[in-house]
Each structure stands twice: as structure tokens, then as C-alpha cells.
Design brief:
single chain; alpha+beta; 3-stranded antiparallel beta sheet; 10 helices; 7 strands; 40% helix
């Protein structure tokens, strides 16, 4: 018997055939299934650089959905657009590498770039040989000077209690031998945090040191030859800090089904 014109079982048909209650998909499961679909993987493949695969990105984003269920309740165009933005930058969202974070902000998803993501983008630009960021503590030996003979020295305290963080700095070595650095005091970092709409939640609370390093790196970028990807990452990150729309809902190019909750109501 040909099965070409046979309609697939509906959830109701399955229940009648088996005599068992079929549990509806949760919103997280539905979104995870969409991320693993061939159409979505094609979107990832078109956006990702060569060193990343669509399958890996789908798995990573699915993990983020499980860890942060509030992402499912956000506008899906915004969510998918944030994921595509992340893919275009070649950054992996989540805590494993600290490249970037997908955070719910109202009904929108914000893409927050981590300091390791900034460093990765800088190294891939081909114009920066190395880029590093460090924190300075109370008992460290630390000194820097600006002007015609700029210099920076930092010898970390090797004892058990180094004290509180006092400064954060970033150093970039450029192609051709040049060196640029930027220093910020803890007070300056806290001033940036105070202006951030996400300053009282998310990475600013759970990963303050990493956010401080990212902040000084972002300031250093203003004096460096940077790529288009770095410029885009800084623009997205500054918009997120200010609580401004990132426009992620306009990035995704494709069709998808609206995720329903377990009761069958639209989100």
C-alpha cells in the first residue's frame, strides 16, 4: 500500500491509537527542534566562519535555552536574530568559553559580548598580534605613565590575600611592533556599570571581573586598527549596555513556526 498520500498522525490520533496520553512539547523542546532543523542549520552555515559548524552552534544554543528558560518567552525574531549575529561574529554563546551571552531583556534578547569574545575577534583581525587584559589588586606592584614615554609595569602579589581589585588594564601588540594599552580604575569601571541597563543583573553580577576586562578592551579598541567584525561587536555591546534596541529581530532571514506552550496557547 502506498503511503505517499497518507497524512501524518496528529497528537490526537496518536493518543487514540496507543491509548496513552501524549505529552505536548514544551516551548523549550519546540525551539530546540527548530534550531536542529535543516532550514535553521542552513541559516547557521551561511553565517558561520569556517572554524565553526552549524551542528555545534545548534547544540550550544539549545544548552543556553535549557539554562535560561526565559529566552523562550522572548520575541522569537529577536532570539533567532541574536543567535545569527553571534554566528556571523564567529562567537559561541554561553559560559564555556565566555565569548558571548544571550540574555532576556523584557521581551527581547540581548547579545552581550564577553571579553574573551573581544580578544578572539581581535586576534582574527590579522592586525593585532596579541591582546590581553588583567586585573590589579591592592597588594600588587603596579605603575603606569602616559605622555611621550608611555609605560606600564605590573608585578602581581604572590601571597594568599592580594586584596581587592583596584584597576583593570588591556595591552595590545600590533603588527609592526607597536604597543597600545589602556588602564581603568575600579571606580571608572563601576561608573560604566552604573550606566548599564543590565548593571544589576546578568554577567555584571555573576562575572564582574570578566565584564571589567571587556570594558577596558572595548575602550582600547578606539585606538586600534579594528575589523568590521570588531566594530559590529562593539556597536552591539554598547547598545546592550545602554539598553537600546540591537535590531536583532531584523537579522533573521527565514520562516519559522510560532512556538506554543504545553497548553496549546500561543506565546
Amino acid at each position: 500500500m502506498s503511503t505517499e498520500n497518507v497524512a501524518p498522525f496528529s497528537q490526537k490520533d496518536m493518543q487514540q491509537a496507543t491509548g496513552q496520553q501524549v505529552k505536548p512539547r514544551s516551548p523549550a523542546d519546540s525551539l530546540a527542534a527548530m534550531l536542529a532543523s535543516p532550514k535553521m542549520k542552513a541559516q547557521f552555515a551561511a553565517a558561520l566562519p569556517k572554524h565553526m559548524t552549524a551542528e555545534r552552534m545548534a547544540r550550544i544554543v539549545t544548552t543556553e535555552i535549557r539554562k535560561t528558560p526565559a529566552l523562550v518567552k522572548c520575541d522569537q525574531h529577536s532570539f533567532l536574530g541574536s543567535v545569527i549575529q553571534c554566528a556571523q561574529l564567529g562567537l559561541e554563546p554561553g559560559n564555556s568559553l565566555g565569548h558571548a551571552y544571550l540574555l532576556p531583556y523584557g521581551n527581547q534578547v540581548q547579545l552581550i559580548i564577553g571579553y574573551r569574545g573581544m580578544i578572539d575577534l581581535a586576534r582574527r583581525s590579522g592586525q593585532i598580534v596579541s591582546l590581553s587584559a588583567r586585573t590589579v589588586r591592592e597588594h600588587d606592584e603596579f605603575d603606569y605613565q602616559l605622555g611621550l614615554h608611555e609605560d606600564l609595569t605590573h608585578k602581581p602579589f604572590e601571597g594568599e590575600h592580594a586584596g581587592e581589585i583596584t584597576h583593570v588594564y588591556a595591552v595590545a601588540r600590533l603588527q609592526g611592533g607597536g604597543v597600545q594599552f589602556e588602564v581603568m580604575s575600579k571606580a571608572q569601571v563601576e561608573a560604566v556599570r552604573a550606566q548599564s541597563k543590565a548593571g544589576k543583573s546578568g554577567p555584571w553580577v555573576s562575572h564582574w571581573e570578566e565584564m571589567a576586562k571587556k570594558t577596558v578592551i572595548r575602550r582600547l579598541f578606539k585606538y586600534l586598527p579594528v575589523s568590521v567584525e570588531i566594530q559590529r561587536a562593539v556597536t552591539l555591546d554598547e547598545a546592550a549596555e545602554a539598553g537600546l534596541p540591537q535590531g536583532n529581530e531584523y537579522v533573521f532571514d527565514g520562516d519559522f513556526e510560532v512556538v506554543n506552550d504545553a497548553s496549546g496557547e500561543q506565546q
